Amino acid sequence: METFLQQTLNGLVSGSIYALVALGYTMVYGILGLINFAHGELVMIGALVALQTVTLLNAAVPGLHPVILLLAGVAVAVPVCMAVGYLIERIGYRRLRNAPRLAPLITAIGVSFLLQTLAMIIWGREFHVFPQLVSTTPMQPMDGVVVSPLQIFTIVVAFALMGGLMLLVNKSRLGRAMRATAENHRVAGLMGINANGVIAATFIIGSGLAALAGVLFASNYAIAHYAMGFTPGLKAFTAAVLGGIGNLPGAMVGGLVLGLVESFGAGYIEHLTFGFLNSSYQDIFAFMILGAVLIFRPSGLLGERVADRA
Amino acid sequence: MKQNKLIFALAAATLAAGAVQAKEVVVRIGHAGPLTGPAAAFGKDGENGARLAIEDANAKGIKIGGDTVKFELVSEDDQADPRTATTVAQRLTDSGVKGVVGHVTSGASIPASRIYEQAGIPVITPSSTSPKLTQQGYKMTFRVIANDLQQGNALGKYAVDQLKAKKIAVIDDRTAYGQGLADAFANSVKTSGGQIAGREFTNDKATDFMAILTKIKAMNPDAVFYGGMDAQAAPLARQMKQLGMTAKLLTGDGGCTGEMIKMAGDALSATTFCTQAGIPLDKMPGGAAFRTQFKQRFGNDIHVYAPYAYDAMMSVIEAMKTANSVEPAKYQPALRSLAYQGVTGPVAFDDKGDIKGGSITVYNFDAGKWAPLQTIQ
């Protein structure tokens, strides 16, 4: 039972990070029908920019409170990622808006390589230590289950951001414009909505979320590296498909489900298959679930709700 | 035009004069390792070790087959990359080297060894520890350092006998290196009377080990062994601490690095152990003298494997002396039966080309660095 609770907690932590990244994929897909494969790299850029800021600030003004350092890191990383996200859209994708679907997809893969290589040139190939600005000292709320303040922080921040995004999309003027553009950006344009502006805003918001996810990811594993965006990017894409790509609540559910499935997969796969499979199949297990979901619900858990996608 | 002709004539004359003056034979020996990229420090270290051996040999004015031999080092950069390694190996064999010291990483050594085998040129690695390298049945492949099987064996026995660990969980990253090391470790634990509590797996790109660690924690083992590199071992150590696990953490040489200390930070403690093939410099028979000489020549300290590269190069030269020939086909049998007292200890090869009685050192994390605990033969 303790192990079960612990695995649930593990799954929630990684799942909420996947969910944050998945939102970026799904928002862009919802509006443009484009899988933005460069999105994972924004997670990496967010983490490395935050790390750079924290390091510089710590060197300039030693002895600052960790929370101030963390906020400063985020305050720089988020705008930088937003700017990068905007530039990707402006330079890379906007000209291809009416091109065949494959063209922006291949461009996205190219942008991903470009960003990774740039990061490698700037920050080198070595692994960097991301400082633990939120405590990781384990606490025991009940016997056999441990949770660290950092894990609670990760889950709370992720859920708060997801809630905020839902409010933005469903209640604000910009959100309404986004939903309208998602339905049909030409018609939305005729209704006086600046479609290009809305699409840029989507990229900017998604990139900001990716930056925050990057900081959470790097804090949790205390590591930052130029290639660190690939795996969470791939997992988040999987989560977005699992939940129903283009569907915002779907991305959140997909992320959390994927995190939990991975955690339970690694923890229980041996028991479930009577020792036939072991934890080397944990990733395969996650993709088996994805396959099963897509066979019975081809458009994901919550469905690719086209009319409401944004 | 006239001037050009004059320069040509002069150059030709100089070359001819040079050829006549030098009565010595020039023998080129290759060194291959990463000189760029993340593992560049290891490659440069090996190159320097090999260079030092060549300079020492040249200073002695060694005579082979009646001629004074002048050795020359041909250094190539394999970037620790399997594909580049084969290109480099081909280039070395084409350039007529009589032997090669290298490559540095197992991933480069294994594909390159086939090319040297076909060309019939002996290759001695100073630092590739994968057991697979010498299991290919090649006649030209040698190694002057203990391999991972020996490393896993030594640590498994040490864990049960010295650390008194009865129940041990084993994790590996499913790479050739990690899996080989973990298998050897697990077998050794079992034969020493210990118990393998669980066998878990991850991959060499993972950062999250919470799920498998939670599972392992429930088994309550005395120690956790990780077969893989420091990039995973460090977050693994942190997550063990985060889960409040008190089991000892054991790793092989992949986790026995300065990077591991930097990345794992306060998650390392006196209950973290690791092994490295070979022995610490100050325990080597010729260690102190080598350190001084190396520092004097290159102005920096030895990274890790320079003494092994030195011994590898000296083994080639010794074998040439014994066989009284610089031709690979002639001196290869002498290499097989070599008995040479090197900087790192006695060098002799078994029938696979592995060093006989290679040593393994167990390290313990102490006051911010790896402190050698015990050397096992």
TrEMBL record, chain A:
Keyword Membrane belongs to the record: yes
What does the UniProt keyword field contain? Amino-acid transport, Cell inner membrane, Cell membrane, Membrane, Transmembrane, Transmembrane helix, Transport
CDD domains hit by this protein: TM_PBP1_LivH_like
Q: Which GO terms describe its molecular function?
A: L-isoleucine transmembrane transporter activity; L-leucine transmembrane transporter activity; L-phenylalanine transmembrane transporter activity; L-valine transmembrane transporter activity
GO BP, sorted A to Z: D-alanine transmembrane transport; L-alanine transport; L-isoleucine import across plasma membrane
- Subcellular location, record wording: Cell membrane
Family matches, as InterPro entries: ABC_transp_permease (IPR001851), BCAA_transport_permease (IPR052157)
GO CC, one annotated term? plasma membrane
Question: Where are the membrane-spanning stretches?
Answer: 12-35, 42-61, 67-88, 100-124, 144-169, 190-217, 250-269, 284-303
Q: How does it sit in the membrane?
A: Multi-pass membrane protein
Q: Tell me the PANTHER family matching this sequence.
A: BRANCHED-CHAIN AMINO ACID TRANSPORT SYSTEM PERMEASE PROTEIN LIVH, HIGH-AFFINITY BRANCHED-CHAIN AMINO ACID TRANSPORT SYSTEM PERMEASE PROTEIN LIVH
Q: What protein family does this chain belong to?
A: Belongs to the binding-protein-dependent transport system permease family. LivHM subfamily.
| Record-given protein name | Amino acid/amide ABC transporter membrane protein 1, HAAT family
What is the organism field in this record? Aromatoleum tolulyticum
TrEMBL record, chain B:
Q: Which UniProt keywords apply?
A: Amino-acid transport, Signal, Transport
Q: Which residues form the signal peptide?
A: 1-22
Every Leucine-binding protein domain range: 27-354
Task: Give GO BP annotations, semicolon-separated.
Answer: amino acid transport
Which family, according to UniProt?
Belongs to the leucine-binding protein family.
User: Sorted alphabetically, which PANTHER family does this protein's record hold?
Assistant: AMINO ACID BINDING PROTEIN (PTHR47151:SF2), LEU/ILE/VAL-BINDING ABC TRANSPORTER SUBUNIT (PTHR47151)
Protein name (record): Amino acid/amide ABC transporter substrate-binding protein, HAAT family
Species the sequence originates in: Aromatoleum tolulyticum
